[in-house]
Amino acid sequence: MNSNDRVILDGCIARFKQENELELNDSELFERFALLQINKLYDISYDSIVNSIVDGGNDGGIDSIIILVNNIAIDSFDDVDDIRFNKSTNVKFIITQCKKESSFKETALDRLITTIPALLNLTKTQDELLTRFNPEIVERTQILKDIWTKTATNGGRITVNILYVCAASEIQISSSFISKKEQLLEVTKSNFSINDVFFQNYSCKELIQLYQTTKNNRLVLEFKDTPLSTSFGEDIGYVGVVKLGNYKSFLTSETGSIRDDLFESNIRHFQGEVDVNKGIKTTIAEGLDKDFWWFNNGITIIAENPNQLGKKLTLENVQIVNGLQTSYSIFNSHSGDLSDDRAVLVKVIINTDKEIIDNIIASTNYQNVVAPALLRATKTVQRDLELYFLNEGYYYDRRKNYYKNQGKPSSKIYSIQYTAQAIRAIIFSDPHTARSKPTALLRNNTIYEEIFNSQRNFKGYLNCCLITSKTNNYIVGIANRQQKGVIANFKLHVAWLAPYFSLTTNSIIYDQIVNFDLSQYDSRIFQTILNFMLNSINQYKIEHPEANLINMAKSKDFTSYLQEQLTTLIP
Q: Which candidate, 164, 149, 45, places its Cα nearest to that of 107?
């Protein structure tokens, strides 16, 4: 046993805490650190990692459930509406237990052996599950079961990864532990009716290795012939054709999956087996006597710091801004055989100007019909918000993980969706919609334009994010696991109430949010709100016996009930 690994890991966690400015207890900090490390290869956003956490009272021994559909994290039922399920759908369920303990214990597996069949029972209703499990894990599981059913029905692939992380110096397990592991795998396989179920342990040693692993943002693109290069002022462009096999290699990650992070700037998600993609697939499979690029518009790439050596072009911060459908079709349909001499047309633009990049993204994608919601990141108000947050020492992440990949503290990074939810909850007194339909806040034009109004003082927007973030940190620190399990379902409701209780008023105008002093929202105020919420929840359930915690959090009626109680408490 190498005790040095434990000491080194403690140092890594301390550094992680300082860099990300986190105020969490040791157990919560270990959990947050571990989840970020073990999910590094999937390029999941910090928000999605936090949203995946379901621990608290009645968690059944599960600390996190991550749902990936075609490498995209799914955080709500609202997200499921955007998925087109077909035979190409690839789903991963990552179920994790994190324990800051010095050894791997069989009791952890015993709990999962019992919990997984109970949670995955399709005959169990939401109300029945809530008698045993907390709302966070029940809702997460309901989303999982919905995706599981739709994927299986449409012939897609499902993989389940069960991960057990602890602070042991190294992986040392007994024969009885191995037996329990095999039992857990069999139980999970039988419940999902699949064979692709995997189990993995992580100790200090593996966590240190993952922490030291930095994402390689330098990729090599090999052209069929030396690419044509041109310059315009200080900007450089390259144009050429790349063999289909080489392009597939360029797209392939260390795990063998597609590098989904290359498409974060692309405003169109992969549409699966639609007519266009079927045509591309057919061309790849059958058009062996014709060059591929003759029949395809090609790929547009934005990148930085090029280094050309003959046919090979090394690039940093690669973003494929047009050609997502083509790229996915090549990745899914081509064998990677380099003897296939057919190629795809690729143009590479070297530019770091965000406004120019946004214009390139918009112009190259308007050639086809695109849902308006997918263009939000390129809008002026979004660029202005990014600049405002930056000037205030915070990072507005218009494109997922842009600032995370630069090493900026996660506590200061706010995504478009996180910001939209915070604004909708606090400014519009609408925590139920922000909670139940987060994607619709960006998809629906009317709601989007209500939220992102460039005429408002952006300080109010930042304060909404800070209030919500502070609320989430307070909730994480709740010592009573039962209370934590309940109130975690109402995070946005608590954030909405924070200014009312801090300012002792039952009516809030926007200027008060703009001028809100975050220090007024201290732990004493939070405890007052917590007690108010718990009492209101209990009273509402007495008056509405049919209500459950998940539906209450999504209900306008419950928000109105809270408003009435607030008026009574603060005249």
A: 164
CA distances to 152, 395, 495, 518, 540 from 466, rounded to whole Å, are: 41, 12, 9, 8, 29
Measure the CA–CA gap between 301 and 344, rounded to whole angstroms: 13
494: left (phi over 0), alpha (psi -120 to 50) or beta: alpha
Q: Which residues in the chain come in under a pLDDT of 50?
A: 1, 267-269, 366-373
pLDDT tens string 320-358: 888 888 898 899 889 888 999 999 999 999 976 766 766
Classified as helix, coil or strand, 70 is coil
Last residue of a domain, one of 212, 236, 267: 212
Q: How many domains does the chain have?
A: 3
The reported pTM is 0.78
Q: Is 353 left (phi over 0), alpha (psi -120 to 50) or beta?
A: beta
* pLDDT tens-digit series, residues 414-456: 999 999 999 999 999 999 999 999 988 988 889 999 999 989 9
Do 403 and 302 fall into the same domain?
A: no
Same domain, 356 and 397: no
Domain range for residue 24? 3-212
Full DSSP string of 394-431: -EEESSTTTTTTTT--GGGEEEHHHHHHHHHHHTSS-H
Phi first, then psi, for residue 354 (nearest 5°) are: -60, -40
Q: Check whether residue 39 and residue 184 sit in a common domain.
A: yes
Domain boundary among 370, 386, 417: 370
Residue with tokens 């079709």: 329
Indicate if 297 and 405 belong to the same structural domain. Answer: no
